[in-house]
From TrEMBL:
Protein name listed in UniProt: Intraflagellar transport 88 homolog
Coiled coil: none
Provenance organism: Gouania willdenowi
Repeat region (TPR), residues: 22-55, 61-94, 274-307, 342-375, 376-409, 410-443
GO MF: kinesin binding
Lineage, uppermost ranks: Eukaryota, Metazoa, Chordata, Craniata, Vertebrata
Recorded GO CC terms: centriole; ciliary basal body; ciliary base; non-motile cilium
Ranges of compositional bias, category Basic and acidic residues: 578-589
Length: 605
């Protein structure tokens, strides 16, 4: 209720009875700042500053900081710099130093950026030494006092202040490093050197780690590795962090031996490092040692129950081990932490699919779609599950949506084409099979399906042209030649003899190839028996003196080791659906595209 508050403050200011009401103008300035009325906010801050004496030094500093922030919001960086410089000269603090550096960065003043950063790391924190909170064994009373103040509000405030200062310094260094020197690395090195000579010396190592991570973001892997390897002889905590990052880099590069070495180094430096344990688990997972991988992920979770990477990978491990219930438990726990993670929700759906609980799988995929409604793979998966569940209309809807966002998914194209054929709309299936032909031009089956769709929809001329085009591209395709012979016969075309001759030649060539292949297969099998089976069954001396008779090999045509193929015609679209009858009288009609064998009268003498 900003306007009501402003009216009330104004009434108080107009009342002469309240002699110290001037400080309320700070509140009015704050309200105008929230309303983004920057000129009025600036006006009230300045009026408040004029009415507060120099004795209230801290209040004046806060008001001046607000004035500087209003200028920043208005884009007047030079005026903001004036306010922050005045604060840093009279009463320096971390926030003012941070904002001053940002303003210099905004106007691109390289030298003043360096100067402001040096002033920032020189601001005294005014907190006690941490050694004060370490209990001594000599004095029990002192130990009790130390224990009492270790986690009191004052110590918590000191920790927060230090944490805020470190965050500001780290952010500033990462921001200005590329701007203060000719290269990012040189600028970061300058920042590190400045920090090493300040009261924040322990931040230098963290800055170096951040430098390596920035190299990673810039895809400069070699520089990142080089930087991280300098920490191998540093203190334990930093060594563990560096080794963890190195292990991760080598893992991504699929150098699993190096990744394993640095994962072990990170674990030896700090056994309670959950990231190191997760990396170790990943390496073992790649080696398909799933039981061991699960143990490492569990240990990482014992050290940090919020380690989402370990929990996710543990779920994947259970899924790979076919422990569906345990995997579901992991991913549902993770979903409670990462509510909008599509990866987690998809994994839950995948596990319900493994359980053949399709309604639950569909429900979780619906949640994925609510977050990423244009993901074509998830839409296709929904179509597949609805199809399995028997809901063809919903399956068609989601397959169509998937096709709209990704019109090159051959599985989706094939399903949509088949759906239109099943519902006897062959002319609509043509566009899908034509697209499949564009995607896989060397796959003859898509072109045959296009031709079959034209034939089934009654467009025989277009079907004939399509078959001729297929024959031109694939002259040895028997199925295409058979259709050409049938169509030419039915349409009374003279080309029938030409295509019949070609068909006979191609079938003869195929028969010869099959016989040659079969003979070669039999010869190789006999050679294998002589070499490996007979020596183990008979005495070698007997083999040299007598002949061994082998039984004739009989190979079934459907055997997976047989080179022969069934050459009989099969419609690529399947048997044509019977149309509804309109009268009770039965008519016996010849199927103009039946599967009867070709007569000798169609073949030349």
């Amino acid at each position: 209720m900003f306007q009501e508050a402003l009216n009330t403050y104004q009434l108080i200011l107009n009342n002469k009875m309240f002699t110290n009401a001037g400080c309320l103008k700070v509140n009015m300035g704050n309200i105008y700042l929230k309303l983004k009325n920057y000129p009025k906010a600036l006006k009230y801050y300045r009026m408040a500053l004029d009415q507060i004496s120099d004795e209230h030094k801290e209040m004046r500093t806060k008001i001046m900081q607000n004035i500087g922030m209003v200028f920043v919001c208005m884009g007047q960086y030079t005026d903001a710099i004036t306010s922050f410089e005045q604060i840093m000269s009279n009463s320096p603090n971390i926030k003012a130093g941070y904002n001053l550096t940002l303003c210099y960065y905004a106007i691109g003043d390289r030298e003043r950026m360096k100067k402001a950063f040096q002033e920032l790391i020189s601001v005294p924190l005014c907190i006690d030494d941490e050694d004060k909170y370490i209990p001594s064994n000599d004095d029990p009373t002192s130990n009790l006092i130390t224990e009492a103040i270790k986690n009191d509000k004052l110590h918590q405030m000191e920790r927060d202040r230090k944490s805020m200062a470190e965050k500001f310094i780290m952010t500033t260094a990462k921001l200005i490093a590329p701007a203060i020197e000719t290269s990012f690395a040189t600028g970061f090195d300058w920042c590190v050197e400045m920090v090493k000579s300040s009261q924040y010396v322990e931040l230098a190592n963290d800055l170096e780690i951040n430098k390596a991570i920035t190299f990673l973001r810039q895809k400069d892997i070699n520089q990142a590795v080089k930087t991280l390897k300098t920490f191998e002889k540093k203190d334990t905590r930093v060594k563990s962090t560096a080794a963890t990052n190195l292990s991760f880099i080598y893992f991504l590069e699929k150098d699993f031996d190096q990744a394993d070495r640095f994962a072990d180094l990170a674990m030896n430096a700090d056994r309670y490092n959950p990231a190191a344990l997760t990396n170790k688990g990943n390496i073992v997972f790649v080696k398909q040692e799933y039981e061991k991988a699960a143990e490492f992920f569990k240990e990482a979770l014992r050290n940090d129950s919020m380690c989402t990477e370990a929990l996710y990978n543990l779920g994947l491990t259970y899924k790979r081990m076919n422990h569906v219930e345990e995997g579901l438990d992991c991913f549902i726990k993770l979903h409670n932490i990462l509510r909008n993670s599509t990866q987690v929700m998809y994994q839950v759906a995948s596990l319900y699919e493994l359980k053949e609980n399709y309604p639950e799988a569909i429900e979780w995929l619906m949640k994925v779609i609510s977050v990423t409604p244009t993901d074509p793979h998830v839409l296709a998966k929904l179509g597949q599950l609805f199809d399995i569940d028997g809901d063809k209309s919903q399956a068609f809807q989601y397959y169509s949506e998937s096709f709209r966002y990704l019109p090159s998914n051959i599985t989706v194209i094939e399903w949509l084409g088949a759906h239109y054929i099943e519902t006897q709309f062959c002319e609509k299936a043509i566009q899908y099979f034509e697209r499949a032909t564009l995607i896989q031009p060397n796959q003859v089956k898509w072109q045959l399906m296009v031709a079959s769709c034209y034939r089934r929809s009654g467009n025989y001329q277009k079907a004939l042209e399509t078959y001729k085009d297929i024959h031109h591209k694939f002259p040895e395709n028997i199925e295409c030649l058979r259709f050409l012979v049938r169509l030419c016969t039915d349409m009374g075309l003279k080309e029938v003899q030409e295509y019949a001759t070609k068909l006979k030649k191609v079938e003869k060539m195929k028969e010869i190839k099959e016989q040659v292949g079969l003979q070669r297969f039999v010869a190789l099998t006999k050679k294998y028996i002589y070499k490996y089976i007979i020596p183990s069954c008979f005495d070698h001396s007997l083999i040299s003196q007598s002949s061994v008779w082998l039984p004739a090999l009989t190979i079934h045509p459907s055997s997976p080791c047989s080179p022969a193929e069934d050459a009989s015609y099969v419609d690529p679209l399947g048997p044509q659906a019977e149309r509804p009858r309109t009268g009770a009288t039965k008519r016996i009609e010849d199927d103009e595209f039946g599967d009867d064998e070709l007569g000798d009268d169609l073949l030349p003498e």
